[in-house]
Amino acid sequence: VMPFMNDEMIVVVPQDHPLSQMDLIEGNMLQNQTWVLREQGSGTRTYSDKLLSSLELNIKKTFIFTSIQGVKEAVMAGLGIALLSRLTVQKELKSNELKTFHLKNEPLIRPFSIVKKLDFEASKAMELFLRKVEEFAIKGRPK
User: Fold this and answer.
1) In 3-state terms, what secondary structure has residue 101?
2) Nearest alpha carbon to residue 51 among 82, 80, 72, 79
3) What does pTM read for this prediction?
4) Is residue 7 within a helix (H) or strand (E), and if so which, with residue range?
5) How many CB atoms lie within 10 A of CB 11?
6) Domain contains 79
7) Per-residue pLDDT tens digits for 1-55
8) How many CB atoms within 10 Å of residue 69?
9) Domain range holding 28?
């Protein structure tokens, strides 16, 4: 297992949501919200479920989508709030289609790793791919 970067997860809300004007919130301020989630088996869904459980949140309602794009569009349409990777919502945050805030005392970081067999021998194509992944992790991440 080769960790190669950390992924910041953020709660995103529609631009007109009451929490959209706040910079820092307490976890209990997420009580009784409608959540837009990925499907079971998704890494994003697993991370979302862990957060909802750790904060002991009561959920008003959920909508489930099978793609990040579907989740983003549902949140922008005002259906609810979501936990997504900052990497996936850069454009929407920059254009103010989505808003985010910091969650007090909740570091929302998940590690990304490459998993390979011990006797793995990389092809030239795989070596190039792994080099590109490493370059992205070091300098290609959005600021």
Assistant:
1) coil
2) 82
3) 0.84
4) strand 2-14
5) 23
6) yes
7) 888 889 999 999 999 999 999 999 999 999 999 999 999 999 999 999 999 999 9
8) 10
9) 2-114
